[in-house]
Inverse folding.
């Protein structure tokens, strides 16, 4: 996979990332709009990692670190490029980022219904924690 390049998104990539998620990501988020990803990029320009093969966007992951915990979001690989090690390479890059920042443990947001992703996360060494439940509240305003 020497033709695979992983690096942080630039501001000019953000609209393409949103379009990519519509084709490659499972589910949608309240933050899946230009304002949301621009805010992410402005706060931490290194958090959104892109995988490109021959210049084509083939995968993404958000590797967010808040100084306390390491969070993974939006691991997505284009359907035509799956099962080629791109997701694993993105996770390795995210984990390297976390270690460099002093992170101690990474957690991932994975949809329960996205069973095809569960095996990939398991193979990467991540495991579901049955003792935790996610509680959310949309913030309007």
């Amino acid at each position: 996979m020497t033709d695979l390049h992983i690096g942080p998104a630039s501001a000019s990539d953000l609209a393409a990332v949103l379009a990519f998620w519509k084709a490659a990501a499972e589910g949608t988020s309240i933050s899946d709009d230009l304002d949301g990803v621009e805010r992410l990029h402005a706060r931490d320009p290194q958090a959104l990692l892109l995988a490109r093969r021959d210049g084509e966007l083939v995968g993404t992951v958000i590797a967010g670190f808040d100084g306390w915990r390491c969070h993974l979001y939006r691991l997505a690989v284009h359907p035509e490029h799956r099962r080629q090690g791109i997701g694993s390479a993105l996770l390795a890059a995210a984990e390297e980022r976390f270690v460099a920042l002093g992170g101690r443990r990474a957690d991932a947001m994975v949809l329960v219904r996205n069973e095809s992703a569960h095996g990939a996360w398991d193979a990467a060494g991540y495991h579901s924690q049955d003792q935790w439940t996610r509680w959310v509240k949309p913030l309007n305003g």
DSSP finds four helices and five strands in the chain. The beta strands are 4-8, 48-53, 56-65, 70-77, 106-108. The longest helix spans residues 86-101.
